[in-house]
Amino acid sequence: MADLLIYWRDYHRNQGLRESGSVRSWHSNSPLLADLVPHDRLWLVTSGQMLGCEPRHAAFLVEVWSVVRAERNRGDDTAYPASRYRTRVLAELDRPASSLLPVNVDGVVRPSRSRSDMPIGSLLQGPRRLSEEVAAALRASLGSGAGGASEIAPSPGTASVALARPQLPPAVNCGPIDHGPIDRERIALGIRQPWAELILRGEKTIEVRSSETRVRGPIYIYVSRQIASIPAAARAIERYQLDVDQLPRGLIVGSVEITDSRSCRPGDKDAACVPATLLRDKFSWSLAAPRRLDRPFKPRFLPYGVWFYPFRRRNQEGE
User: Fold this and answer.
1) In the prediction, which pLDDT does 221 show?
2) For residue 111, pLDDT beyond 70
3) Neighbour tally for 314: CB within 10 Å
4) Which of its termini does the chain have fewer beta carbons within 10 Å around, N or C?
């Protein structure tokens, strides 16, 4: 069984164009793809810049595909003419593996002797066959977020490779990064982990509160020192494979915009990352445009309520 590495140059654009459901397709002129057989595996990586992640030059594993078949390109997709792409590979998304992604695998796939700060896209040209050792390291990277073994098994017939788990960052800094100056007039909202991290990742777009708010526009996110203890938080930590001990606490970590406030609806559960039972008699604060600070900072003044100003004393607010 073969494991191939593919650099996904146009990851975000292709995400919007590809087929719905579980079937994926990849078009190529490479003879490596023409020789693929069912159950071979494609490891698709893109750059931090394409994801809006730091480091921007690094390689991030974004999806894992299991090959269904490789066939001659019929040219029925005008975006991939047969004259330029001889082979089309049909594959299925490996959902247990891909649910753990993206993850930084730069230390695994970066070619040896290359500069560590060189953009990964300039180094990975065309599909390449992976050694058993590198494929094992990629499988190990899928388990690094959970602190255990990968859920994806070795390809049938391949030898088991004893390999140390690659040293990966504890959390992927996905989403736009804010490199600008601190706004000392901006108000902040205290939010516990894992909710603050999921907001910054763009996974949680509704904040559930017991009252409405008239605040609109950008606010700072202050991460409380305590971790949320409700069962829904534990399920979110497991689902997104978060190592909460490595996530920041007691710091201003980013910003998000509040665009609306209304009574919760049962359909808000997915955007809020909590079950519908927790939405009863609560209010949904709609969130947009999360931005992670490149350097989290400690507030000058600690929270004293739902809202607080990191750089103002309470009696300076005039409210």
Assistant:
1) 97
2) yes
3) 11
4) C
